[in-house]
Records
---
Amino acid sequence: MTVAIGVVGCAGRMGRMAIQEVLATEGCVLAGGTEAPGDHVGSDLGPLVGVDAIGVTIGDDPIALFSSSDAVIDFTVPAATRIHASAAEETGTAFVVGTTGLGPEDQTAIESAAQNAPIVQAPNFSIGVNLLFALTKKVAAKLNPDYDIEILEMHHRHKVDAPSGTALGIGQAAAVGRAVPLDDVARYAREGQTGPRTTGEIGFATLRGGGVIGDHTVMFSNEAERLELTHKASSRGIFAGGAVRAALWLQGKKPGLYGMADVLGLD
Ligand code: NAD
């Protein structure tokens, strides 16, 4: 069976990687791509990824793309992801969401769509980071709150949300390990007279600069020792590869909201 995969936001950094991955993956065919109104709409998709014209035109109609796809991959912006979630809900097409920085209403739209379409949502599609989530949960469960948990991330200068969705995912894994709601213990920034650190806090620190694809470290420190777990991405290909893997995995799945742990068979 050949799986037709569409890519919304196809001219973006990740959109282009997703197209390359679809074209390179056996058993997949590129159903098409959409972009926000502007320069790219109406032109051929091939040159976006450095090849000659492939006879597939960039569109701007999500419903048309979802209707002609077996799965659609989304690395865009929250407002667009909400529209794409409605298209998934209307058509029942499998949907892979990688966009981060989503607000509560965007998340509600995805959860509503998952009543009618199978969806994989992940802040990070790499195998390494998903293993890091699992390890973080395990370590946090073993160490008492005497160990301070801090999460440090660095990304390229173009990134628009902070902390990264992956850093929040690590925080969520640590909070689950400690059996506390992340919202009750998260400390997203520190500035000025902050006073001493509160026991049990999960801290976040964000760095932005240059072309860094994505570095994440979680630290567990007490007075006597510090354990650090680090992941560094050196190619966006790992995210695109994971997204295509998720799109294939969704074929034949029931409507519902799944994560990369389901796709990869982790815990
Ligand atoms: P980018 O700015 O390069 O690309 C976003 C694209 O979406 C742009 O081309 C933009 O024109 C397009 N877009 C905006 N509105 C649209 C609309 N209505 N319809 C169609 N396209 C639209 O950004 P990027 O670096 O590719 O990252 C995109 C998102 O993916 C970010 O939220 C980022 O954090 C996330 N991301 C997730 C992972 C992961 O593994 N989950 C990995 C990398 C990036």
---
Amino acid sequence: MKSTFFWDDPDKLEADLFAIPVFEGKVSDSKDVQRIDKQLDGLLSRVVEQEEFVGKAGETVLLHTHGRLPVGRVLLVGLGKRDEFDVSDTRRYGAAVVDCARRTHVKRVATALPPLDSSATERVSQFLVEGVLLAAYRYDRHLSPERRQPLRLEQLQLVLAADFRGNPAQLALSRAEIVGEAVCFARDLANDPPGELTPSKLAEVASALARDERLECKVLGPKECERQKMRLFLAVAQGSVEEPRFLHLTYHPRGKEKPAQRFVLVGKGVTFDSGGLSLKPTASMVGMKADMAGAAAVLAVMNALPKLGLRCEVHALVAATENMISGSAYKIGDIVTGLAGKSVEVVNTDAEGRLTLADALAYGVRLKPDEIIDIATLTGAVVVALGPHMAGVMGSDVSVVERFLAAGRRAGEEVWPLPLPRRLHEQIESPVADLKNAGERWGGASTAGLFLKAFVEDVPWIHFDIAGPAFAEKDWSFIPQGGTGFGVATLIEYLVSRDSLRS
Ligand code: BES
Ligand code: MN
Ligand code: ZN
């Protein structure tokens, strides 16, 4: 699909479908509605009246123009109440347009923008194209052809006021395409079945990505991980017949200038989490193919960085493994010392993510970054706390967390701060080791965070627990059922904003 702008006389607009977004109760305020209504001798307002369309969020009305206009169909899309509307909700408008395009098989779609202040045009354009790309996504590679619903959408024209021309608008489109592509890349990985997307397959994906985008890429096998003393990671891996892989990708900005900042991104890469000997019941195991969604997000960001041309250096680390049950699986009561030299008593083999992350974080600290960010489907507790659509953010201090949350809000992802109360640390203290890998039931998201904190030393650190929103149970607007690519947009927004603040 190709996205372009249209600045010309609106009467010259040609398309199979013209979408017009309207705020609730303000349908007739829209200039586009007025113009088209006049051209159709009041037909549009009669349809609106008959269908009792008022512009509630998600409400739509579709009208054929029967050759009376150079646009074949007109689609009105409700945006809900103006004072409840956030620019990022423009993605939902984009999704409604795609929905209609899917049903009507149209190829050329034109879209008016939500009637907001012109200062918002750039971001509105970005979110609109993002919404269209995200809603157009389907994971259909395993469906028989007759079950695929191909989207014939080829051209998307964003209809703009004539005074908004040129560069900033173009930038918004390319940013949307970069983010959209990255999110869909992450979704594909999370949706791939665990028998296909094994740790070594994930490593192949990472090296192919590195080749295409000219990233530096190191892949460590079990022997090299052993040499690196990543024994916490290896303990999780030892129950599986699939070999673990440790992935280290680096983005170096172009040019001779020394990068102003160095970031490390760590993604949880458990390609299937059975729980190990602390076996999950079937219902909880469903969806555990996506326990590598953090890794997928981090790789997706690496995919985007060269296209964004950021000037900071970014490392992506993934300790990829399965968590399986077998005669060689790690056991409850095992005491394991990893890369950081801290011993850990395993009290629950289902708290495997933090063990893999501990070694990856310790590896990351050695790279001497300015900041380290981990993203992980880490705890069921965060889903209990915040529900299935919101991610929890913890970190080394309030200001670092707040800066990250602000990026999440700008990117339109639901993020919320969670504490790391010092007093809970006693829950992960062990009589026989430096730490144990799980605490009690209450405060589970925070004790997981506190466990990780022990491995980041004094590097400013963000812990992003995406266990809830990483996977969607059912279709919603621009998020189809399955892997969501959650976190990608926030991470990109965060890195871009940190990059432009360089000293
Ligand atoms: N991968 C799970 C967390 C998870 C739960 C992700 C639900 C997505 C949806 C993680 O490895 C896990 O099993 N965590 C345990 C930790 C507990 C044993 C301390 C949990 O949350 O139950
Ligand atoms: Mn687990
Ligand atoms: Zn897990």
